[in-house]
Amino acid sequence: MTRKALSYVWLAGGAALLVWVIARNDPRGTLLAFREALAHPGLLAVAAAAFLATQVGFLVKWHLLSHQAGAPFTFRQSLHLFGTLTLVGLFTPGRAGELAVPMMMRGGGKMTGVALVNRLLESSCTLCAGVLAALLVLDVKTFGGSLKGLGLVMLLFAAAIVTLSRRRHIEAILGLVRACLKPLRRLRAVEWLFQQEEKRAHEIEHFYQANERLLAPGPIFFFGLLMLLVWTLMVSGNWCLIQATVPPDSKPVTVAVVVAIIAVMAVAMFVSPIPGGLGLSEFASVAVFAQLGYVAQQFVPFLLLARVGVYLAVIALYLASRLAGQPLGAPEGAPAAG
To answer: Which of 247, 226, 220, 91 is nearest to 161 (CA)?
Structure first.
């Protein structure tokens, strides 16, 4: 089975899981909740604006990180690249497309470094937000046993940041991987990896420089402030959707609960082989709502609208990138096209 066919299989499995979640949680009530949501056009409009503003926030963060890494792209060039990689990432397992698109679109080693560091730091922020939300919404006594495991994961992220920030560490790891793979070079996949390394050798220096510039205390602190703004927008949009779809007499939903659900959605998208975490994200979120004492079926309309909202915002950004974006020039250090 080809990789593309396997992606379709996973996507079909995710769609089936989503249908199962809807069917198991009162589909008629879900339809009625959608109709009820139309009676709150103001909340829906604010939610849509917040989802779009969230993507714009991600774009601004990407543009500023690019400049910090030493890639002097204009904002229109950043829009052109970011609009594409976000769309591709949304429809590839684990958002893997975000890491491949910069190189494919002539972004060079610097932009690949930006994509890698961006993924690492976003994952760290998601983990921290999830831990904070869990501490606020769960009984600390029952949750305390899990804190050690979560703390270990956070330490692993910190170790990854320290490793990537030093060139000698990356070179040592790559050297070890190269030595382990050398006896298997006759395999087609392994040979392809060696060929790619040789082909991209001129861009590796820029990759190292990007990592060293971005993974410093100042840029990480600035990145954290930007992520705080982005998370504020995400929480605002999702909270408005909940207010528009969940019956007013249900158990109140706090900001901490919204943060926890967003973290669950993000983790499902990162770790799932299903593009966008389709189905798995909704399944996990419903389970969390039930665990927190809510009537889980009341939140299915919110989860569906949240997914649609993200899709529409990403597609809108992509269309803007096609209309107003500017193609990238050849990356610095690349050989001239002959």
So the answer is: 220
Rounded (10°) CA dihedral 21, 26, 28, 30: -60
Angle among Cα 171, 175, 176 to the nearest 5 degrees reads 120
pTM of the model: 0.80
Query: Nearest-CA neighbor of 276 among 102, 112, 117, 88?
Result: 88
Element (DSSP H or E) covering residue 168? helix 167-181
Residue 205, SS3 per DSSP: helix
Nearest to 138 by CA among 263, 293, 246: 293
- Write the pLDDT tens digit of every residue in 4-39: 677 778 788 888 988 888 888 888 878 888 888 888
**Which tokens go with 52?**
């779009």
> Using CA atoms, how far apart are residues 80 and 129, in angstroms rounded to an integer?
30
Q: Residue 123: CA atoms inside 13 Å, Cβ hemisphere, count?
A: 21
**If 0-12 CB within 10 Å is exposed, 13-18 middle and 19+ buried, where does residue 205 land?**
middle
Nearest to 314 by CA among 48, 45, 42: 48
Question: Contact 109/214 with Cβ under 8 angstroms?
Answer: no
pLDDT digits (tens, 9 = 90+) for 116-153: 778 777 877 787 777 777 766 765 554 555 566 566 66
pLDDT digits (tens, 9 = 90+) for 240-276: 999 998 888 888 888 888 988 898 888 888 878 888 8
Distance, in Å, from the CA atom of 71 to the CA atom of 317, rounded to the nearest integer, reads: 21
